[in-house]
Amino acid sequence: MSGSVVKEFNDYRTKMNDKILADNNKVIKRIFNLDTNAFAEGALDVATKELLGLVASTVLRCDDCIKYHLESCHKAGLSKEKVVETLSIATLVGGTIVIPHLRKAYEYWDALESQS
To answer: Which domain holds residue 63?
Structure first.
C-alpha cells in the first residue's frame, strides 16, 4: 500500500463531502459542524481526542473513520507506538471481530509513514 492510497481516500472523501454539503441540508451541515467542533482543542488536547476517535471507530468497525483518525493522529505527530497501543485497547474492547480492521489500520498507517 503506498501513499497513493492515502491520496485516493482523501480525494474521494473531499469530493463526496463537497457534494453532500452542496445540497445545503441543515441537519447534515450541523452534524458535520458538530464533528469538527468535537475534535477541536478543549479540555482534552487534539491528539487525545483523535486517539479516542480511533478507538471508537475501530470498535464500530468503520474503515473510513479509522483512516480519518489515523491520518489525524499522524498529522498530530503521534508515534506508531501510541497508535498501536490505542489500537490494542480498541481490539480488547471490540473483540476479535475487529482484527480485520486492525490489519487495515496497520496497512494505512504504513502508507501514511511512507509518504512522510
So the answer is: 3-114
Res 3: pLDDT: 64
Average pLDDT on 34-60 reads: 97
Region 40-59: what's the mean pLDDT? 98
Number of domains making up the chain? 1
Alpha-carbon distances, residue 109 vs 15, 48, 69, 78, 87 (angstroms): 22, 17, 10, 11, 12
pTM reported for the whole predicted model = 0.92
Which CATH number is 84's domain given? Answer: 1.20.1290.10
Distance CA 116, CA 101 (A): 23
3-state class percentages of the chain: helix first, strand second, coil last, to nearest 5: 80, 0, 20
